[in-house]
Amino acid sequence: MELAQVRLLVTDFPACYRFYADVLGLKPQSGAADGPYEKFSPTAGSAGIALQDRAMMAELLGELAESATGHRSLVVLRVDDLDGYCERITERGARLTHGPVPMTDRMRVAHLKDPEGNLVELQEWLLLRTDRA
């Protein structure tokens, strides 16, 4: 078994497309900026994030509400330079809601939301510190 993608159901597809492509800098697979589906890939790794028009999926399944309530997902992206990445994405319109701050002695994080309110966590993995007594 292989994880193909994490898919987010969204109501404002164009705004979410711009966020993942233009703000976070992920590469869109086909350029379908108006939907109803698009997969985004980071520069490294094989996992991807996809957007799916929520109304289309609700019609298919017949059980989804028009909009989600509460936090239902957390997209996690690992970056090498958290401070530098956060600076670049805020220049492109992102608004951090938390961080960058240490989460553990091995990881620093920052959080933001996409246009639909989905949480995005940016992680910087730190080397294990051997200089501690």
TrEMBL record:
- Domain VOC, residue spans: 2-125
Q: Which domain of life is it from?
A: Bacteria
Listed PROSITE patterns: VOC (PS51819)
SUPFAM superfamilies (UniProt xref): Glyoxalase/Bleomycin resistance protein/Dihydroxybiphenyl dioxygenase
GO MF annotation list: dioxygenase activity
> Where along the sequence do coiled-coil regions lie?
none
* Record Pfam families: Glyoxalase (PF00903)
InterPro entries xref list: Glyas_Bleomycin-R_OHBP_Dase, Glyas_Fos-R_dOase_dom, MMCE/EMCE_epimerase, VOC_core
Q: Which residue windows are transmembrane per the record?
A: none
- Record flagged with keyword Oxidoreductase: yes
Keywords (alphabetical) are: Dioxygenase, Metal-binding, Oxidoreductase
Which PANTHER family would you find in this protein's record? METHYLMALONYL-COA EPIMERASE, RING-CLEAVING DIOXYGENASE-RELATED
Put simply, this protein is called: Extradiol dioxygenase
